Amino acid sequence: QVQLVESGGGSVQSGESLRLSCSASGYSSPYCMAWFRQGPGKEREGVASLDSDGSTNYAASVKGRFTISQDHAKNTLYLEMNSLKPEDTALYYCAVDPNDECSGAWFVTGWYKAWGQGTQVTVAS
User: Other CB atoms closer than 10 Å to residue 48's CB: what's the count?
Assistant: First the structure.
C-alpha cells in the first residue's frame, strides 16, 4: 500500500526558506511524484514534479525559487523553497502516480493515485 507523509512546514517571513519532506513507501519504478498546494479559497495546483528517470517540471510561479529532489536511500521526496512570498502560503501535499513516469499533464490532480495529509506553509509579509 502506498503511503506518503509530509513534514517540514511552518511559518516564515517573506524572503526566507523552508524545506518540505515527503516520506514515501509502497511502490517502485516507474513513478511520478509531485508537490501540490492549496491556498485559502483556491484550487489545488501543481508546484513541481519528479519522476523515476529524474525528469522534473515546475510551475511558472515557483521556477527558479523551488527545487524538487529525492533521496532514494531514504525514500524521501523534498521541496526546497527559497525566496518565499506571501502568495506561497498554502497547504502543501505530495502525491504519487505509482504506475508511470510524469507526462505533460503532471499538474493534473487526477493522475495521482495517492496523497499525503499535507503540511502547512505560512509566509508573512
Answer: 25
Q: Round to whole Å and give the CA distance between 46 and 6.
A: 16
Peptide bond into 40 cis (omega under 30): no
Positive or negative torsion for Cα 81, 85, 91, 96? negative
Mind listing the pLDDT tens digit for each residue in 20-58? 999 999 988 899 999 999 999 999 999 999 999 999 999
The residue with cell 521556477 is 63
Q: Would you give the distance in Å from CA 69 to the centre of its chain?
A: 10
| Distance in angstroms (rounded) separating the CA atoms of residues 7 and 57 | 21
Q: Which residues pair with 79 in a beta bridge?
A: 20, 68
Return the biggest CA–CA distance within the chain.
41
Mode of pairing for the β-strands spanning 90-97 and 119-124 = antiparallel
Helix (H) and strand (E) counts for the chain? Answer: 0, 11
The pLDDT score that the predictor gives to residue 10 is 98
